[in-house]
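pinned: reference chain
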Amino acid sequence: MTLPLDLRSRLIAMTNAGTVEELWSMHLQGMARYGFDRLMYGFTRYRTTTSLGDPNDFVLLTNHSTDYTDVFIGDGLYHHAPMVRWALEHEGACSWRVLGEMIAQGNLTEAERRVIEFNLGMDVRAGYSISFKSVSSRAKGAIALTARPGLQQHEIDATWDRHGDDIMLMNNLLHLKILTLPYIPPNQTLTKRQREALEWVGDGKTMQDIAAIMGLTQATIEKHLRLAREALNVETTAQAVAKAAFQNQMFVIDI
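pinned: its structure tokens
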């Protein structure tokens, strides 16, 4: 099937985005054309059977207001969100009409009902959730597409019937592209020296090797690595290497 020229141009532009911010801006514009004016994307590599990991380590992108995110994310309301539960248990796309079915069947907890009431109060009423396929049991990514105020669920469902494949394609590309770009949570940015020291550790060099390569003393190298561990909020240098790699902070080409 041949893609419409406009969609093809958008996809090419997304693949060429050099930063998460640039990519996200493109995606917001693209989704708004289909009636989704508020998006929330989340990704974690630290999922366990009992936790999604530290929220400070999430890749979290949204254009929701702070009045919404301060409660939904900041107060941990997302832990009890029915569509978050759905995303953790499924892959693909789901219309929010299932919320009405859950209510009718009595399948919601009191905490989940409070989430729905909060969303309704913030005019988060209609939309779709997409749960992305992952090859790792520790990783999970999903996005919530909220329809603009005034649109009913049956209207957004009709839009999905017509354009669902294109919407899925754009969101899948967004997710895959984000995984290739540096995304640094607040207060976890490495300095150039910290990053360089971690890169040499990742290449298997000893402290003595790294000191000689960087022209510094071993004590200074150890200081850079300690500060890198503190910045990344980990206990060991091995964990720092892994986390910096996950965030695409290592082996970055400075432009």
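why pinned: The first strand starts at residue 36 and ends at 44. The chain is about 50% helix and 10% strand.
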